[in-house]
Amino acid sequence: MLRIAVPNKGSLSEPASAMLHEAGYRQRKDRRELVLVDAENEVEFFFLRPRDIAVYVGSGKLDIGITGRDLLLDSGSPAEEILQLGFAGSTFRYATRPGTAKDVSEFGGMTIATSFAGLVTQHLADNGVDASVVHLDGAVETAIQLGVAQIIADVVETGTTLRNAGLEIIGEPILKSEAVVIRGTGAPDDDPKVRQFLRRMQGVLVARRYVMMDYDIRVEHVEKAVDLTPGLESPTVSPLHHEGWVAVRSMVPSKDAQRIMDELYDLGARAILTTGIHACRL
């Protein structure tokens, strides 16, 4: 069986399980379950702490896993990302009191507090900065107030928490993270079970980004309509019973669907419908 690590809690857990369910895999009904066997799909799921997943996958104990890019890089584990999943996006940045420093080049001799010590240590080394790193578990914004550090490095969404603590974001982002599928760096590239898993997950990603659009239009306007709805390869065009009219079916990006419908209507299209896509293979 393919052995897959899945986050058991936190911001990664529910979106990961939802995506796996959409991909046709069984998921646990009881959050206390640590292992779930999906015999029909020949997969065994292990529900682990998100921070531990890269370690298990990198050691070869598990075949692949779902975790955050930040957690993967912070672990230092011999694992690599093989698919971006598009959820749990975050930005990892430095912050400090106004006037302390402007960017990482000014951190020399200072102390940085963070929950991602491995990631920050590597970033400092990459920038040739000699600074100390203190590892804390959560609520790192209080480290400056308590005199533990002059700088913090943390996940930033809106920046409201930092501003409320009297801090400002400085420098360029250390990292932009999201949920990713990972495997060990020494794992074979041609494992058919891994390829099948990735196809399923990619199918979910496409299904989430696109809708199917159907509409009727006069023959003389087909070319302009097809320019608006080119599809992934080309749209399906079928003659209707009424002469001079055709039916068109095409996949369009869901974020553009309303605008495209307006433009098609102005072009003369009628009976314009959009339907969700539950799964696909490209």
Features:
282 residues, alpha/beta, D-Maltodextrin-Binding Protein, domain 2, Alpha-Beta Plaits, 3 domains, six-stranded mixed beta sheet, five-stranded mixed beta sheet, 9 helices, 15 strands, globular, HisG_C, magnesium ion binding
Helices and strands in order:
Blueprint: E1 2-7, H1 13-22, E2 35-38, E3 43-48, H2 50-59, E4 64-68, H3 69-75, E5 79-84, E6 90-96, E7 111-114, H4 117-126, E8 132-135, H5 142-145, E9 151-156, H6 160-164, E10 168-177, E11 179-184, H7 192-209, E12 210-218, H8 222-228, E13 236-239, E14 245-253, H9 257-267, E15 270-276
Parallel strand pairs: 1-3, 1-4, 7-8, 7-9
Antiparallel strand pairs: 2-3, 4-11, 5-11, 6-9, 6-10, 12-14, 12-15, 13-14
Helix pairs in contact: 3-4
Give an overview in words.
The chain is built from 9 helices and 15 strands. The model has no long low-confidence stretch (mean pLDDT 94). It is an alpha/beta fold and 282 residues long. It is globular and about 80 Å long. The strands form 3 sheets. It has a 6-stranded mixed beta sheet with strand order 2-3-1-4-11-5, sandwiched between helices. A 5-stranded mixed beta sheet has the order 8-7-9-6-10, covered by helices on one side. Helix content is 29%, strand content 33%. It has 3 domains: 116 residues, Periplasmic binding protein-like II (D-Maltodextrin-Binding Protein, domain 2), CATH 3.40.190.10; 87 residues, D-Maltodextrin-Binding Protein, domain 2; 67 residues, Alpha-Beta Plaits (2-Layer Sandwich). Helix 3 packs across helix 4. It catalyses: 1-(5-phospho-beta-D-ribosyl)-ATP + diphosphate = 5-phospho-alpha-D-ribose 1-diphosphate + ATP. It is found in: Cytoplasm. GO terms for molecular function: ATP binding; ATP phosphoribosyltransferase activity; magnesium ion binding.
